[in-house]
Structure formats: C-alpha cells, structure tokens
Amino acid sequence: MDIVQSVLQKEQEELAKFKPITVEKKEEVALDLGHLLCTDANDLDEARLRDDTDNYLLELTRDNTQLLLNEIWKLETERIDEEIVAKLPEPKLPLPRSRKLPEPKPLTRWEKFAKEKGIQKKKKDKKVWDETMGDWVPTWGAKRAKVEQQKDWCIEVPKNVDPMTDMFEKKADLKKEKVARNEVNRMRNIARAEKIALPRAGIVSADAASSKQLLTAATIVKASTASVGKFQEKLPKEKVARGIGVKELIPGMKRKRPITDNKKEREVNLELVTQILNKKPKIDLEKAISVQKREAREERENLEHTNVDSKKGGKKKGKSKGGKGNKKPKGGQGARKPGKKSSFGRKRR
C-alpha cells in the first residue's frame, strides 16, 4: 500500500505542475483568429500588479493564450506534409499599413514576348557532364569559374595575333565587355518597361544606329562647346538634324510655349502697349543745364573771334571749338634763348 500511495502522490505532484485548460473570466475576451489576436478587457488586480508584477503578468498571459488555443483547436484542420494545419478564418480587425501596397513589377520585353508565345521558363540542371573534364561540373557559381580555369589552362594564339599577346587577359577583357553590354541592355529594358525617356546620345546601342540617330548625335557633339557650335567649322555637304534648337542643346533653357488662346494673347498685347505708352522719359535737369551753358559759351567765343578778325581786316579762318586755328604752332627751330642757361650743356649727337 505504501508503494501505491507513493506512486499516486508522485502522479498528483506531476499533474499539479500543469494548469487546466479551462479558464474563467468575468468578461469574455475578444478573439480575432485571423490575426491570432486576443484582447482582454477585464480590470487588472492592482494589488497583485504592484506586489508581484512578474508572476501576475505571466499568469495573465498564460490564461489568455490558453483561451486563444482553445478556439484554434475548434477550427477545421488538414494534413500537409505529415503536419496538421488549422484553416484560419478571415481577419475581423482591419490593421492599418505603414506603407502602400507594392505595385506589380512591370514585365520586360522578353517576358512579354514569352507570355504571348507561351514560352515557359525551364530550370537549369545544377550539374552537367563535361567531356573535357570527364566529370559532372556545376553550371553556375564559384565552382563553375574554377572548372573553367582548369579547362582553359592553355589557350592557342591565333596566327593573325601578335605572339606576345596575353590571351588570358584578352579573354577576361572580352568577358567584362560582355557583362557590361548585358547590363546596359538590362537597364534599357527596365527603362522601356517603366516608359522612361532615354537620352538621344551617349548610350551604346546593341543594334546598328540609323542615319537619323547618327546625325542627331553628331549635331549634339558639335554643339558641346562654350559657343554652342557657333564657331565650329562646317564640313562639306554637312547636314544638321532637324528639331534640335539652341534651347534644347543648352541645359537650363526652357522653350516658351506658343499662346493658343486668343483672349490670353489679346491681354498680353494690351499689357505690352500700355507699358510702352505709360513709360515716361527720364530727364536729367543738371545735365541739360550744363549742355545749354556750354553751347552758349562756345557761341559767344566764336562771335568774339569773328569781330576781332573783321577789325583787323584779315581773312576769316576756320576755327575749332576751342578757338584755335587748324595750323599747328611752329617750334623754336633750334634757336636757343640767350638768357636761359642749361646745367647739362648742349646735348651732343
């Protein structure tokens, strides 16, 4: 009997560790199974919350989680990959989004073509058999690059190439060029899908450029000077691309749009005429008085010289504004004044 009682006592102690799945609440909690949300509107026990905060919050969380799990076990279930999964209902509580819904990614040119033709994307094999290596090699990744290095340990130099050319370096350059060309094509496809206008020049085209594109590029290059190509020499039989003006070539300049509304055009013209008619001339009184005084003085001086010449009976000679004759005054013709002494003596030549 002692053994039986000891076993029963141990079992009761083990069961005491686990709490029952039934939980009693004064008010029912609000459950939203679509969001796995449980909202408890019951009042908190302030005394327990103040004295034993951690244990009280732990018990409260356990009870609310148990109520949520009880409702989940009542839902319809199904087995997926040996796992039992519950089918959650639609959410009841609308939750706001911090960001807008993502827009669908636009299809590229190849994706549109494949969709129209019904071409399906096939998965590549991770490994393929290589006859040269005699082994299964990966189709992509770092290991693939190592396999290529092992395969191309020796590269033959063609006859039409300089024998001192490094073929390994040349191969690496060709690979870089191919990668760059693919990247340009990828960016062009994205721009075309997003309907972004591409520049008329400056992008390498995979296809052969047309004569119109070459003419446009040549015109833009020629105008890429400080004078916008004004002083650039013209080539014989040179043509200029149409539809490209100075305002389009100079950055920052905007073309004025023509006025199509008659009423607006009439208002603009009337405003211009009004500005011209109401414009008053600026008069500088001090400058006008000084000009009048100068003219009066010159007229008076000319009149005095005329009277003097008429008294002497001489001919009237042409006078300048300063009152002096047109003839240059003569010098001393080398004669020295007897009373004037020079400290340096006569200059010898």
Structure commentary:
The structure is a single chain. This protein is mostly helical. 42% of the residues lie in helices and 6% in strands. It contains 10 helices and 6 strands, in the order αββααββαββαααααα. It has helices at residues 2-17, 46-51, 53-72, 109-117, 142-151, 167-193, 211-222, 246-249, 262-277, 285-312; strands at residues 30-32, 37-39, 77-80, 83-86, 127-130, 135-138. A two-stranded antiparallel sheet has the order 1-2. The chain has a two-stranded antiparallel sheet with strand order 3-4. A hairpin with a 2-residue loop joins strand 3 and strand 4 (83-86). The protein is flat. Residues 315-323 have low confidence and may be disordered.
Oligomeric category: single chain
The structure class reads mainly alpha
Principal-axis shape equals flat
Q: Which radius of gyration do the C-alpha atoms yield?
A: 51 Å
Ends apart, CA distance between termini = 158 Å
Largest sheet: 2 strands, antiparallel
What is the helix/strand order?
A: HEEHHEEHEEHHHHHH
Which percent range describes the beta-strand content?
A: 5-15%
Count of helices? 10
Low-confidence stretches: 315-323
Mean pLDDT: 78
Can you give the helix content as a percent range?
40-55%
Tell me the total number of β-strands.
Answer: 6
Order of strands, main sheet, comes to 1-2
